[in-house]
Amino acid sequence: MTGPRRGEGPVPLPAGPLDTRLGLPPAPVPDTFLEAVTTELGPAAVAVEDGVLDAAGRDWWPLAAVWATRGLIPARPAAVLRPADADGVAACVRLAGEHRVPLTPAAGRSGVCGGAVPVAGGVVMDLTGPGLSGVVDVDEVSLLARVRPGTFGDDLESALANGGVTLGHWPQSMDISTVGGWLACRSAGQYSTRYGKIEDMVAGLSVVDGQARALRTGGHGPRAAVGPDLTALFVGSEGTLGIITEAVLRVRPRPAGSGWAAYTFASFADGLDAVRRVLRRGATPCVVRLHDDTESRRSFSVDAAVLLVLDEADPAAVDWTLAVVDEECRRTPGAAATDRRLVGQWLEHRNDVSALGVVIGAGLVADTVEVAAPWAALPGLYRAVVDGISAVPGTLAASGHCSHAYPDGGCLYFTFAGAPGDDPPAKDGYYRAVLQAAMSATLAASGAISHHHGVGLVRGEWMPAALGEEAFAVLGALKSVLDPHGVLNPGKLGLPSPFLPPGWSWT
């Protein structure tokens, strides 16, 4: 990873205490609440230093990084709580409910949608302490690992490697994100075509809900028919329904073989069709990543759409997979094999996030937007989103790639940068206009408004349209049952909150 260390953002913060950008009156945090937490968990469990509070007021949301250049953070908690274990988590949630204090769970704070921003103030719960981090045990026979939520990705893979296994989950934020965050946001790793997204890797959870009840889900075997899958209820709930305190994850033996390939296509649509045909035949290379011509010129100095292919598995499986890829790519008019060292070039820089701070420091507004849709809709959706973003006044660049592919469709991952001027409201307005263009096009294509970054604060207003009004109401009803006081992560997933004005939006 090139760039900030754990707990930092893309733009450094000045000394505080800092002013807040969202401007909501923070919910009151009674002294009696902090005293009760201190009594139960000890003085080390409560932090109120300015630097700690300012850092906990933001995550990796790029618009918040723009605000940071003006010395602003989105919001500010009254305290950061650091429970030592799952019992401490339950105690904090119980006391928050009793005292009506909003509580925002956080770990690596690497999310880019404002999911860890304490919108209503209150307190932030830090889940990265020693008792909430690390691999508990690995069942190398059943290929299951028990892992705590505050475990960072690189630490997880190092521990699993000692047992000859891997999770196979490699997000760009690997070094600065945690298992709990992956599960909360339904994240995807760069190797998801072979290994799946995080929801495919989780066999069970331990969760503390908004009533401070300790729940266990899953654990009934590889498949079960014992009612609805409650594990799936909490995966993707972004800390609004419960706080994950342990996960049982499906691991795999470390692969013995690997292989690379690269191809060029006359158009992005041609490349998408070739990838579709590969998946249709049952081949699932770990990485099958198609860049449009704009990104290919910028990243690889190639004037065509570039497809990168990487696989790891049993050597015979790798050989078969790459043979299928080669057959389908060569069937495409105008396609050609190219230097496979482009894959190595991507691998070398794939986790480098330092450019974001540089671009924002130069006065620009930049971010990424990832959505997903079926194959039949992907070519048109790609064109609609790139054209829609390009049409927003101030846009300097808009490009995309297909980052994750599955038998029924894929993820389109867009990057944009704009220069709407130095006026802060103009920058905020530009950012929202770009989001509106991408969300509107995705909803029109019946796609998913998020593939792996989650919803958080940023995309909440589009949730009723994404789920449907009736289904969104069901989500709200679940929230009221599991978190009757509404203390868990207010302002996320577009859910109403007793701590926020009706209809409030970050815009």
Relevant terms:
alpha+beta, five-stranded antiparallel beta sheet, globular
How is this fold's topology laid out?
Elements: E1 19-20, H1 31-41, E2 46-47, H2 50-55, H3 62-68, E3 72-73, E4 79-81, H4 86-99, E5 103-106, E6 123-126, E7 135-139, E8 144-147, H5 153-161, E9 165-166, H6 179-185, H7 192-195, H8 198-201, E10 202-209, E11 214-218, H9 230-234, E12 242-250, E13 252-253, E14 257-265, H10 268-280, E15 287-291, H11 293-300, E16 305-313, H12 315-330, E17 336-337, H13 341-349, H14 354-361, E18 365-374, H15 378-390, E19 395-406, E20 409-418, H16 424-444, H17 463-467, H18 469-482
Parallel strand pairs: 1-3, 4-6, 5-6
Antiparallel strand pairs: 2-4, 7-8, 8-12, 9-13, 10-11, 10-12, 14-16, 14-17, 15-16, 15-19, 18-20, 19-20
Helix pairs in contact: 1-4, 10-12, 15-16
3D architecture notes:
The protein is an alpha+beta fold. Among the domains are: 123 residues, Uridine Diphospho-n-acetylenolpyruvylglucosamine Reductase, domain 3 (2-Layer Sandwich); 93 residues, Alpha-Beta Plaits (2-Layer Sandwich). The chain is 34% helix and 21% strand. The strands form 5 sheets. A 7-stranded antiparallel β-sheet has the order 17-14-16-15-19-20-18, with helices on both faces. A 5-stranded antiparallel β-sheet has the order 7-8-12-10-11. The chain is globular, with a radius of gyration of 22 Å. The model has no long low-confidence stretch (mean pLDDT 96).
